[in-house]
Each structure stands twice: as structure tokens, then as C-alpha cells.
Amino acid sequence: MSERDYNTVRNLPLCQLSDPKYLYLLREFAGHMAPPCVAEALMKWLRETLIYSKTQLLPPDKSRPPERCRDEKSNKSAPP
Question: Which residue ranges does the record annotate as region Disordered (predicted)?
Fold first, then answer.
């Protein structure tokens, strides 16, 4: 993993972690660079997120709303 890729992964906002274009980098980060506890949590979260996105079922934790990206232009949170 190059330094550029490492910095990209480290600076990803939470709402972009499930973006498929970063999946390879996240797996590489979890497998080679992250501490074991972080790698395990990251891979578990990615599995749950990918299963949710493929099946369109309710997420496992129904009490927590899905994460939303901040609106880049207005710098305001997206409406619920």
C-alpha cells in the first residue's frame, strides 16, 4: 500500500467507507496496516454494510439511522 493510498483510506469520511471504489484499499488496510482490533471491526462493518446494500433489508441496528454525507456545497448535514 502506497503512502498516497494509506492517506486516502485514513482520511475517508464515515459516509464514504462503503463506497465500492474504496473497498480494495480498505481490505488492504485492514489486512496489512491496521491493528487487529481495528481490522476486525472494519471488516465486520463492511460485511454488514455490503449485505445491507445488496439485499435492501433493514440494517442490523434499527435504532441507529444510516450515516449521511455532509453536503459539500452548503456544508450542512443532509436532511433525514
Answer: 56-80
List the Cα angle 59/61/63 in 5-degree steps: 115
Look up cell 482490533; give the residue: 37
Q: Is residue 65 part of a domain?
A: no
Name the residue with cell 459516509.
15
Interatomic CA distance for residues 10 and 4, integer angstroms: 10
Indicate the pTM of the whole model: 0.51
Instruction: Give the tens place of pLDDT for each residue, 8-67.
Output: 888 888 778 777 788 888 888 888 888 888 888 888 887 777 665 655 444 455 445 555
Q: List the domain range (segments joined by +) for residue 48.
A: 3-55
Residues in Cβ contact with 16 at an 8 Å cutoff, skipping those fewer than 6 apart: 22, 69
Q: Grid cell 472494519 — which residue? A: 42
